[in-house]
Amino acid sequence: MDYTERLQNVSVLGAAGKMGSGILLLTAIEMADLSLKPENRNKHFVLYAMDVSSEALRGLMKYLKTQVLKIAEKKIVALREVYADRADLITNEQIINQYIEDVLFIVRPVTAMEATYDSHIIFEAIKEDPALKVKVFKQIDQNSKTSPWFCTNTSSIPINEIESKAELNGRVLGVHFYNPPAVQRLVEIIKTQNTQQELVDFAYSFSKNLRKIIVPSADVAGFIGNGHFMRDALHGIQEAEELAGKYSFAESVYMINRISQEFLIRPMGIFQLIDYVGIDVCSYIMSVMNPYMKNENLHSSLLDKMIEQGIKGGQNPDGSQKDGFLKYEKGKPVAIYDVNQTKYISGFQQKCDKELGALPSSIKPWKAVVGDKNKEEFLVSYFNELKSMDSLGATLAKKYAKRSREIGLQLVSDKVAHSKEDVNTVLLTGFFHAYGPINDYM
Amino acid sequence: MAAGYNTISMGTGRKEFHPKKPRPDLEDYIKEAGQAVLKVIGGAEKVDETVFGNFIASRFNNQGHIAGFAPYIDEGLRYKPSVRVEGACGTGALALITGIRSILAETAEVALVVGVEVQNSVKAIYGADILAAAGWAKERKTGHAYFFPGKFSDRSKAYAEKFGPEKPRAAMAKWYENAITNARLCPTAQEYHNTTEDLIACGIDKPNPKGFVDSLNFFDCSKVSDGASAIAILSEEGLKRCGISKKDAVEIIGFGQAEEDITRPPADPTKLSTTRVAIQKAFESAGVTKDQIGTVECHDCFTIAGIMAIEAMGLAEYGKGPDFVLEGNTTREGIIPFNTTGGLIGWGHPTGATGVHQAVTIWEQLTGKAGEAQINLKPEKPYGLSINMGGDDISVISVVYKKAE
Asked: How many CB atoms lie within 10 A of CB A129?
């Protein structure tokens, strides 16, 4: 079965979720583009968008339409070629509308698992729950007429565990997209010792066609992405907890968040990133990873406490940020949750900024650095300046950067990542960092 | 001709522009520009008729019947004659010569001319569909997604194939630099806020055929603009009626108009043949030569069109337009300053208003009202020339001006 045949019948599980909707969108576009090739005009393409929530599927279809419109507008030059033989489609608007129709016609929103039984490929983006994933895969595989390939979007569960428990024997591969899949360029690919080479080849071709950057990771819980992120988050949490001896809890969270964002020139502070992913999701990922860790305890009782108090972060169905460690207004943090006082407080910013001290004078905002043609040169001089400073802010930032580097190096020495470059690529393209953690800036 | 006025050319580049925030609409621009002229000439009662230039509000703004906005400018224009003319991007100058003809025919002593277009109502990709109406509709299907950039990209490509790619590209970058440098001196210009340091680096940028067209980059193109320009056309009698001194007016010395068959592709894509004819007609009508022209407002919808216009005007030999630009002849200090407030690329291109904007700019320069953008005109070159082109060298109008006194 060739690439095109494989993609004639596909299912995405958890299609209305945050990750599933993005994977569905990208897959729908790839399938539609295939279907529009002259040699495929008579072939039938179908993409099942499977989700347990009918209501969420409604939202998904709305999301799809908006996103496909944007994509179509961007690739109008190519689309005019694609529809060159359609005499009835003359204006850009007619062509864009036809393309939206052609993409959406491929997608079938479904709530019943039976729909997936004909599919050759199953993309899975359901809850990060090993038992649930195994159960679903087993059910599909036992009922399927096609012996399908399974591409799981798990960000933490070892693929070989899913493979053996669901008895998939070489037909499952980790294809880990980053949030949001339509935007983030990175895909981590994780195979087991048994994974069929054809499946790996397919995943590489597919990801390349989606214009993704592929990084292979070893099949170790958390892979490269969460392998770094979870340890980085735990470092931030520990640092805040330490500071909390001297400052209030909220002040400590504020300071570490600012260190990890502004001082280290990252797109978000570590607590904002935890909120973005979801406090409960982070905690859950740690609990999935932890049993596989030998000399390490990937666990935070602070996260447990937050969840107990009902503070979970994550996103609303419309994509807006829910309150977590930070409280958000129009997407911007305005207050910090104090786990001791069980409420959001603000008004300490000036005091904390004074305690931290000034940013290095050569500072530039993250966005400017990412787009800077002479980025490398800037980073060298910026970190040189940071290195020479001994304010509280600079000290914490140096420690943070050092730890982030250590985590990266450990991923290489543990053979989770093939190389330093792979670790850096993951942070650059999956987390939008301006620089990789394994560097010689300091 | 006197009492010219330009609104801001609104669109990307202006600090106050935000695509999702409410902006002035068609009638607001008409009113602003129209009222500004009326104020200077002494009110609506002085006006005999109004001429509107608007290309295609029927599609950008769902608004036809533009003539009906004359009394909206001022109640005093109620029941007075009003007409709207259209000639694609050449609409503005078509409105000018419609007013001029009325004065010459003595059916009016004072004509108010208002050119207007509001195009940011749709995204550029859909705007391209609308603007494609300036070409032959039957060509739309085979045309580029960005129809007109596609047309002029073809011209640019043909020119580069004939004369080598480096020099034309360098000249196009230089043209862009001139346009932005001049626009920075004019507060109503769309590029007035442009602070890019290395303009040549932008202009020299390699075209990206995958996202745009083969042989033009974004900087080669005039932007999507909203705006209006207005001016009064007056007979000697009209000047007296309005109490306007001749020193504040320019005289129309002559004009030329030429039309090509819209269904025919250009006979030679490396030349603007219709433009050449229109300019020659204007020169003959005015009894002047190119050497007497002190400043030109030309239709640089794309940088390559500016360069070809130089050749069409006879300032440079065929194929030598790029040298003429690269030698600095068209800069504000050059021997013949072009587009002194930025032209279509720098000032902006609200299509139906452009021809009127060109007249307003020349009126400002010849009467010393150009503010920071003022150039020094030499006594032996007292004439101004405007060249306004509709479509791909289809409807072209060229006008020769001189200070009235």
From this structure: 14
Nearest to A325 by CA among A277, A367, A395: A277
B49-88 per-residue burial string, b: 16 or more CB within 10 A, e: under 16 = bbbbbbbbbebbbebeebbebbbebbeebeebbbbbbbbb
Which of A189, A216, A243 lies at the terminal end of a domain, its last residue?
A216
Distance from CA of B142 to the nearest CA of A (A): 8
> What is residue B86's predicted lDDT score, i.e. its pLDDT?
98
Q: Which fold has domain B2-122+225-247?
A: Peroxisomal Thiolase; Chain A, domain 1 (3.40.47)
- pLDDT, mean of residues A160-173: 97
- Find the angle CA(B107)-CA(B251)-CA(B37) to the nearest 5 degrees: 70
DSSP string, A54-109: HHHHHHHHHHHHHHHHHHHHHTHHHHHHHTTT-TT--SHHHHHHHHHHHHHHHEEE
Nearest CA in chain A to B133: A91
For chain A, give the mean pLDDT. Answer: 96
Strand-pairing partners, residue B373, are none
- In-domain check, residue A436: no
Contact residues on chain A for B208, CB-CB shorter than 8 A: none
Strand order of the β-sheet with A326-329 is A326-329, A332-338, A343-345
DSSP state of A418: S
- Domain closes at, from A185, A216, A247: A216
State how beta strands A326-329 and A213-216 pair.
Answer: unpaired
Percent of chain A with pLDDT over 90: 94
Residue A364 lies in a domain: yes
State the Cα–Cα distance between residues B32 and B6, nearest whole angstrom. Answer: 9
- Looking at residue B225, what is its pLDDT? 98
Task: Could you please state the CATH topology (level 3) that the domain comprising B134-223+250-403 is classified under.
Answer: Peroxisomal Thiolase; Chain A, domain 1 (3.40.47)
Amino acid letter, residue A343: K
| Residue A392 forms part of a structural domain | yes
Q: Are strands A172-177 and A343-345 parallel, antiparallel or unpaired?
A: unpaired
Using the beta-carbon criterion (under 8 Å), do B126 and A90 form an inter-chain contact? no
Number of DSSP helices (H) and strands (E) in chain A, helices first:
18, 11
């983006």: which residue's tokens? A125
Q: For A77, which of B129, B141, B145 is closest by C-beta distance? A: B145
Count CB neighbours of A197 within 10 A. 9
Q: Which domain holds residue A82?
A: 3-216
Contact (CB<8Å) A77/B140: no
**Confidence at residue B32, expressed as pLDDT on a 0 to 100 scale:** 98
pTM of the model: 0.90
Number of residues that this document lists for chain B: 405
CB atoms A92 and B125 under 8 Å: yes
Do the chains contact at A80 and B145, CB–CB below 8 Å? yes
Judgement on whether residues A119 and A265 belong to the same structural domain of the protein: no
Shortest alpha-carbon distance between residue B144 and chain A (Å): 7
CB contact under 8 A, B145 and A87: no
Taking any CB pair shorter than 8 Å as contact, residues of chain B touching chain A are 123, 125-126, 128-129, 132, 140-141, 144-146, 209-212
Which positions ≥6 away from B261 have C-beta within 8 Å?
Answer: none
Q: Which residues of chain B have pLDDT under 50?
A: none
pLDDT at position A315 is: 86
Question: If you search the block for the tokens 């300071």, which residue do you land on?
Answer: A255
Report which of A238, A232, A231, A263 is spatially closest to residue A253, judged by C-alpha positions.
A238
Q: What percent of chain A has pLDDT over 70?
A: 100
